[in-house]
Amino acid sequence: MSNVLTSDRDALLIKLRPEIKANLETYTELEAFQNKSIRPIIKFQSDFLLTHIKLYIKKNNSKFNLLNFDAQKQYLAQILKSDIRLKNELIAFVVALFTKHEQVFYYQNQTDINKRITQIIYSRCVDLIEELF
Q1: Closest CA to 28 of 20, 17, 36
Q2: CA angle 127, 128, 132 (to 5 degrees)
Q3: What are the tens digits of pLDDT across the range 22-41?
Q4: Domain that holds residue 95
Q5: C-alpha dihedral, 52 to 56 to 61 to 66, nearest 10°
Q6: Longest dimension (CA), the chain
Q7: Total domains present in the chain
Q8: Helices 2-16/100-108 angle, 10° precision
Q9: What is the arithmetic mean of pLDDT over 57-73?
């Protein structure tokens, strides 16, 4: 029964993800994982992740919208580096949508994958910075 539920869950998780075109054959294993798993999950979770960061900023820096673009980028980079709780929450929002097989790969490469997740979320925030205020 447990394997049926796991395979159903995995199939549903994969079905939820938007398709991102990439030639996975030319990438390292970590790059392929990033493009096959991490990027689609972050794209799917984009509104949720941005809302979470927006609420964090509203609570912790009420003058964010008064900062210039470079200062906003610097602030985002700083909070994603120094606020371990926020960083871990954002990573958890992505990891929670991994399939069972992806979880195994994640735990074997956790440090590198966490860096990639954080960097992609940072880039997404910078691209959509006007939505943060």
Answers
A1: 36
A2: 140
A3: 766 778 999 999 999 999 99
A4: 2-20+27-132
A5: 0
A6: 55
A7: 1
A8: 80
A9: 90
